Write the structure tokens for this entry.
Amino acid sequence: MKEKTNVNDIDRSLYDFRNEEDESEYFDSGLSKEIIRAISDEKNDTDWMREFRLRSLEIYQKTKMVDWGPSIEGLDVDNIVTYIRQKSRMNTDWEAVPDDIKDTFERLGIPQAERESLAGVGAQYDSELVYHNVRKEVAESGVVYTDLESAMHDERYAEMIRQHFMKLVPPTDHKFAALHGAVWSGGSFVYVPKGVCLEIPLQSYFRLNAKGAGQFEHTLIILEEGSYLHFIEGCSAPKYYEAGLHAGCVELYVGRNATLRYSTIENWSKNMYNLNTKRALVEEGGKIEWVSGSFGSHVSYLYPMSILNGRGASAEFTGITFAGEGQNLDTGAKVVHNAPDTSSYINTKSISKSGGISTFRSAVTVNKNAEGSRSAVNCESLMLDRISRSDTVPVMDIRTNKADIGHEAKIGRISDEAVFYLMSRGLDEDSAKAMIVRGFADNVSKELPLEYAMEMNNLIGLEMKGSIG
Amino acid sequence: MAHLLEIKGLSASAEKKEILHGVSLFIDGGETHVLMGPNGAGKSTLGSTIMGSPEYTVGSGSILLDGEDITELSPDKRAKKGIFLSFQSPIEIPGITLSEFLRNALEQTTGKHMKLWDFKKKLKAAMDLLDMDPSYADRDLNVGFSGGEKKKAEILQLLILQPRLAILDETDSGLDVDAVRTVSKGIDEYKKQTGGSLLVITHNTKILDALTVDKTHILADGKVAAEGGGELVEEVISSGFEKYIKKER
Ligand SMILES: Nc1ncnc2c1ncn2[C@@H]1O[C@H](COP(=O)(O)OP(=O)(O)O)[C@@H](O)[C@H]1O
Ligand SMILES: [Mg+2]
């Protein structure tokens, strides 16, 4: 007897609880100057930000829909609620967070993680941060970790933010970048001063509870020379029938000889459109390490970009994407080599099952001035059945002949021979397949924060149950 | 009493081509049988079919274990009932360590949880016996192992899982003299510890040195062409398979 498992129900039980919403706090759905102005009023925006939002709205209205990836027809942006007023202001005291919201994050394990293994935590619920806190010794070292809005109103950081905000990802980049510029809300600001190395990570957790709403958080991280930071970002939402939209933006500035590790686990519910833009600018000798796990969403467009702007700068991208039933995940990485002796290493795995579609895109550009640069792209896909799909779309634009570029792609199906081998040692078919998939994902899961790696292993086990037939 | 393993008129095919044409034989508890035959005779097909490989379709006949028909059982169920196959070419599985895999397999076949420490001790002892470097326990299953190391890893699994019937498919092929000796030592140890039965597919006598052969089967063109005792092994090695192969071909 095969055990029938409704994958949707089981694997998401941790995320699928919802809280009652207070609809009076919703702003009108859709997009208009009035709504944008209302958001500005609500946030007490500075003049430049008011203008920035309105200009972004104009760009949004003029820009055509993204058309290179999976269809986003099911998304009706005009009906997305772009802003939900929070019942409480940002807190640095966990006890002061309203009970229902607190309960949400308790269930997701956020406060425990803070106590046990993090240097600081931020938690965003719908449109606004509800909690932000860093350990005392971290704050004393000069590290700033707060919500972007507070930082913007703090004269110590206001100018710094103005100089960096949406400079890496301008609103003209694509339609959803413009939308983000117009309605962005929440997100984190991190500043690490020269030479400060944080040994334990900071983590922000984004939770979209409201139905038919969008989340547009903006994360801005600035690392000064010789510093080190590991930043973890987690996302989830309960499942609704209305499509949800996530159009966040992440801008990372990595100074000379600084290293930033940016880990993301995205587990949005399977009705979410995840159109997220992430970009890092790396100076001389600096390094960006992306670790990215994409499991949720109905449709994803996600290609973190690294711009290697100083001699010897480097980027490493390690990613895994798991597309199950009803999911079309378009993920990948982009690198621009814009200085000599820069290097990039992209290593991704993608798994598709039960009709899921997983497409991997890489774009490596090596400019003329990037002599002596190296780039290696390695992507492997595993399809677990005949109805699932995997594609790889590598793009290379190499403008110097003094660069060392390599690309390797492997697309395969789960091997019957391997399944038989494991079964001949007593493992049932589900366990044998789960073991092969875990093995396939292993060198990526090793890079994930421990609790996420364990969660991923459980997820694979659950996804594999009843996968036969 | 029922035989430990009984194969009755078994035909099996792959990709619509029949490879085994009505093979019959039986093995009793504690016995050592040798299966010989020219390349392409169907020896590996027989071993894999007994283990339940989905590569082969059974057309007619049956496989009985303790008198119970297991022809339709999945490989994992057969393993749980005590059948083991040492593969002629063990497959590489990245991302799973030998030790992690084997502990999982042991817990599955016995249905009992084993403490990590106890398992490690057991594994270490078996690896020592097989002259395997302990670091292999933490390497990915068969990945980058030499031919000889892969075969040793198969015998290591045999020693840990302790089945009632082990089918060894050319475990000695392609090994140097020392490695054959080590592998034989492992097989001998399995016999001593468990008193289990063996079906040894081989072209050589070296691997049989420490064993008493109860019966020899010669397989040619998917059929049992001759049977005898241990003396048949020597005879085949000195005069070849010629007289068993159909002349009309
Ligand atoms: N999966 C398969 N598909 C098609 N032909 C096969 C398959 N497996 C084995 N054969 C064929 O069956 C015959 C017997 O193979 P095998 O059992 O491996 O022989 P042996 O182990 O005795 O050398 C050979 O002709 C081989 O090519
Ligand atoms: Mg063979």
